[in-house]
Amino acid sequence: MQFKTPLQQFRSIAILEGWSYILLGFTMILKYQFAMPQPNYVVGMAHGLLFVLYVLLLLRVSYVLKWKFWQMTLAFLVSLVPFGTFYADSKWFSKW
């Protein structure tokens, strides 16, 4: 599947970033409760990469679609909250 618009690219990365955030919570349990640090390392690296990509695409989408500062700030803040990107995608990103 090819995503042609910057908003489609951003939304797909937002969903992946949201899932990686949730998965990171589970791997933290494995790391600290069961002394299994490897899954946390792998998922943590993936999540870090996806978060950086999310921020870069957020800047691109904000510029291309001429989002207001509050929209860009809100899109950034929801990435810091578990399940935030899912909510934002269903309520805002799909309509902006």
What does the model show?
The protein has 96 residues and is mostly helical. The protein has one domain. 80% of the residues lie in helices and 0% in strands. The protein has four helices and no strands. Helix 1 runs antiparallel to helix 4. The longest helix is centred in the N-terminal third of the chain and has 29 residues, at 6-34. The mean pLDDT is 91.
Largest sheet features? none
How many individual β-strands?
A: 0
Calculate Rg over CA atoms: 15 Å
Report the end-to-end length measured between terminal Cα atoms: 22 Å
Unreliably modeled segments: none
Please state the overall shape, judged from the principal axes of the Cα atoms. elongated
Broad structural category: mainly alpha
Q: Percent helix among the residues?
A: over 70%
Beta-strand residue percentage? under 5%
Q: What is the typical, i.e. mean, pLDDT?
A: 91
Number of domains: 1
Number of helices: 4
* String of helices and strands: HHHH
Features:
96 residues, mainly alpha, 4 helices, elongated, membrane
Explain the layout of strands and helices.
Layout: H1 6-34, H2 37-64, H3 69-78, H4 84-93
Helix pairs in contact: 1-2, 1-4, 2-3
Quick structural gist:
This protein has 96 residues and is mainly alpha-helical. The chain has helices spanning 6-34, 37-64, 69-78, 84-93. Residues 7-92 form the DUF3817 domain.
